[in-house]
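Before surveying the methods themselves, let us examine one representative protein, written as a sequence plus integers encoding its fold.
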Amino acid sequence: MNLIDITASHSKEEVFQKVEDFLTEKGFRISKVDRTRPWGGFFVLDESQIREFRAMFFEDVDLSEEQLEQKLSPKFLLVAPGARLSWQYHFRRAELWKLINGESGIVRSETDQLRTLEEMILNETISLKQGERHRLVGLDTWGIVAEIWMHVDPDNPSNEEDIVRVEDDYARK
């Protein structure tokens, strides 16, 4: 069941507004919004609300008290129909993804070689290992993916610069 009423015909601005309204209605504080990504964009939520975020979107994931005290960077990725994030990996984090709305696909591999696109299943958690290559792909509708970063070194947490792009539709480095 989709949580937000979004269709492929909604504009990027409408989708962002609907997601912002949803997050605000659920009591989440937004610490950053990025609407500039060519594939869509993202919302970063207030780190102090990680317990509420986990309870709502990652109740199936066991996180220790110690992990919940660390920076987990709760986030929502919004991927447009037909758009793709870069084929990428990270040195300083693993990731947990869950499709909470719409449709999205994922490609993943232990090497730089692209594999077959798999359709993500609504409300099913995907665990991406540190260094695992991955790409989020928009299908027929906007996809909304909840995300948690599992930092390899909590004293030196990952950030947006911790992206190694193997391939990118938008010629980014």
Notes: The first strand starts at residue 30 and ends at 34. The beta strands are 30-34, 40-45, 75-79, 87-89, 93-109, 118-119, 125-128, 133-151, 164-167.
